[in-house]
Amino acid sequence: MPVARAQSVFGITGRSGSGKTTLITRLLPIFLETGMKVSTIKHTHHGVDMDQPGKDTFLHRQNGAHEVMLATPQRWVLQHEMDHPPSLTTLLQAMSPVDLILVEGFHATVPASLEVWRPATQKPPLFPDTAAISLVVTDSPSIPQHRPDLTFMALDALEDIAAFIRKNAAPIVLDQAEPTR
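User: That's the sequence. What structure does it adopt?
Assistant: Structure tokens below.
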């Protein structure tokens, strides 16, 4: 019988080259220092293959395996073939419960997020038209016209950004099969 669980999720979004990954890697130690267990999802629009032609796992997949798991003494990786892009909910359901999942990307479906916006990228911000963005992290001294409900913080205000995320992470209710452990 499936059981439901709530998973706290917060998105880190922004245009390519804005510094999303750098921000996440700087925030993770702050969360870990407080005893939080944090996982991440990295979304990309580019095709990425972790396998190499000729390797056993590649051959398994190439010959029709729906899922291929590679297990090493340090970690395991599960590759799951799909006919269509996975939804954020599908990915969250596949992950173990933790205190917080940071999602890089999926800006259209993450219910609570921040945008890393740097004018140096010469790309328009997402925050004017994305309601889920409640915080803009920036290195800009001048902010373009914006929604009155937005909070702005400097890129180096890491403790404040982490506190904002902890306070504003959205719980997503997930259906999950009963644990077999």
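The chain is about 20% helix and 30% strand.
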